[in-house]
Amino acid sequence: MPGTDDTNPASALYRGKGVTAWRLIADEIEADIAVLRLPPGEQLPTEAQLAARFGVNRHTVRRAIASLAERGLLKAAQGRGTFVENWPLSYPIGPRTRFSENVARERHQPGGELLRAEEIPATPVIAHALSIPAAAPVVAVSTRRFADGTPISCGIIHLPLPRFAGFAAAYRRNGAVTPALAACGVADYRRLETRIAARSASAEEAALLDLAPGRVVLAVTSINVDDNQVPIEFGNTAFAADRVELLVASDQAEFKP
Amino acid sequence: MPGTDDTNPASALYRGKGVTAWRLIADEIEADIAVLRLPPGEQLPTEAQLAARFGVNRHTVRRAIASLAERGLLKAAQGRGTFVENWPLSYPIGPRTRFSENVARERHQPGGELLRAEEIPATPVIAHALSIPAAAPVVAVSTRRFADGTPISCGIIHLPLPRFAGFAAAYRRNGAVTPALAACGVADYRRLETRIAARSASAEEAALLDLAPGRVVLAVTSINVDDNQVPIEFGNTAFAADRVELLVASDQAEFKP
DNA sequence: AAAAATTTGTGCGTATGTATT
DNA sequence: TAATACATACGCACAAATTTT
Where in this chain does the record put each HTH gntR-type domain (chains A, B) (predicted)? Predict the structure, then answer.
């Protein structure tokens, strides 16, 4: 364990195992972020100022910042400063997962955009997910979704034909899945399963989501079923991992805003 | 988006019905993978051989391979060949999430390793997650978990003291959380919430998980509670995204092997 | 447009306390 | 006890990126 210099004010608090100066500084900054005394987007004092305030060397402050940056709470930019990262949008996943509701719950303005729609024969995995014969016709709808104008996710959803022949047009009008499904006679639907993987964004995804190349996305595949347990939608969505975290709550009752 | 050259069959991707040569080839390979005619790890024929078999130019085969590689089904290695990727371990998340059960369900041998255990004062987020006062003592247990000997995840779990003073020793003996909690008098526990983010692996995570630098991890934070809804464990786990996918099933009843 | 100032990033050397051998 | 390895912390200097003058 590290050395403890009793003359150092920052190290005078606790003296347990593993309590080092840089850890104390990191905890203090973390607490400031947690209490919103350092709100998202806020610029921290410079490393030199923090070092002076805590009475330590600049390297020690840098060690604390590095620890918080690794956990995604801070982001240091050479020449500009160090900033508090935005809290990710919390996106609950459960039996009644709906994009627009999830975004609105966090007091953001949801939006959806239809990029492309085409009829294609189902590939093997699409056919399996929708429980239809291989190469049966489906409509593939490419979408991009927003919260307050910033892109959150993009992806392709597949729906069987001819039942959902009118889906694309309805989605284009509404910019949301639920009303578009309603236009096709689906009063209610349920999320059957959600698979979550992670990978680097493809070039197309990076362009659509306005991500720096190499940033990572949460790759989510989902199956929705209607009231009769018939699969109606197979989706393949990439969420910008910088802006969203997925939340699986076992208490599926309510999420207060 | 790429340019559109009508004389090039592969460039019809972004227009029309989407039934292009490379798509047909990709579907065929995908189907072979789906029915295990191309098992995980298998090497594909060379691009030249595939081009000859399908009667297309090698560029067309490359377009199909690129599409499947982007979805993680294939991996092309310059100079070596193209290989079928291993199917990721499917890791169900729900009210009764347990690592060892999840791994055993997929017919793999689970394992756990205690890397380090120390008593520390709770940071603000730990204290909030466990519903204890700030800076209250907790035990932080660093673990690494395996399936069939290959590392799957690493992370730190935090448990309040003095209730779980014996946890670390019990975990070291058993290599699993559930029996270690039982040793502390917790007969049963429930997953309260799970937050899923994604990011690049840190240097330490890359080393522990045997990942190439820059590969991505699923960063999962979880809270488990005992029968009285008292938080007993706050975990912060990084899953190697190459080797595991998280599965949220609304029908939480059963998963057949 | 160019120069200066500011801020983070990197490297080296030194010293000290902790843990292991 | 001694030797060794390691993590922490300090001090100085300079490089690289950005903003301001």
Answer: 19-87
Contacts with A35 from chain B: Cβ below 8 Å: 124
Contact A125 B16 (CB under 8 A): no
Residue extents of the structural domains in chain B: 9-84, 89-248
Backbone angles phi, psi at A112, to 5 degrees: -140, 145
Contacts of B172 by beta carbon, 8 Å cutoff, 6+ apart? B114, B117
Cβ–Cβ gap B202/A120 under 8 Å? no
Chain B contacts of A195, Cβ < 8 Å? 90, 245-248
A15 is near strand D: CB distance < 7 Å: no
B199 neighbors B206 (Cβ within 8 angstroms):
no
- Separation in Å: D2 C1' and A121 CA: 77
Is the Cβ pair A247, B198 closer than 8 Å? Answer: no
Per-residue pLDDT of chain B (257 residues; tens, 9 = 90+): 333 333 333 332 333 345 678 888 888 888 888 777 787 778 888 888 888 888 888 888 898 888 787 777 788 877 778 888 877 888 888 787 888 888 888 888 888 888 888 888 888 889 999 999 988 899 999 899 988 888 999 999 999 988 999 999 999 999 999 999 999 999 999 999 999 999 888 777 888 888 776 678 999 999 999 999 999 999 999 999 988 999 987 654 333 33
Reported as a single tens digit per residue, the pLDDT across A55-73 is: 999 999 999 999 888 888 8
CA distance A168 to chain B (A): 15
State whether the beta carbon of A60 lies below 7 angstroms from any atom of strand D.
yes
Matching fold, domains B9-84 and B89-248: no
Tokens matching residue B76: 């092309």
Identity of the amino acid at B180: A
User: How far is Cα B179 from Cα A46, in angstroms, rounded to an integer?
Assistant: 47
Per-residue model confidence as pLDDT tens digits over B35-48: 777 877 788 888 88
Q: Are B240 and B146 in contact (CB under 8 A)?
A: no
Residues of A in contact with B209 (CB under 8 A): none
> What class, spelled out in words, does domain A89-248 have in CATH?
alpha beta
Closest residue, chain A, to B66 (C-alpha): A202
Measure the CA–CA gap between B220 and B155, rounded to whole angstroms: 9
B9-84 under CATH 1.20.1270.20, yes or no: no
pTM comes to 0.81
The owner of tokens 């459960």 is A94
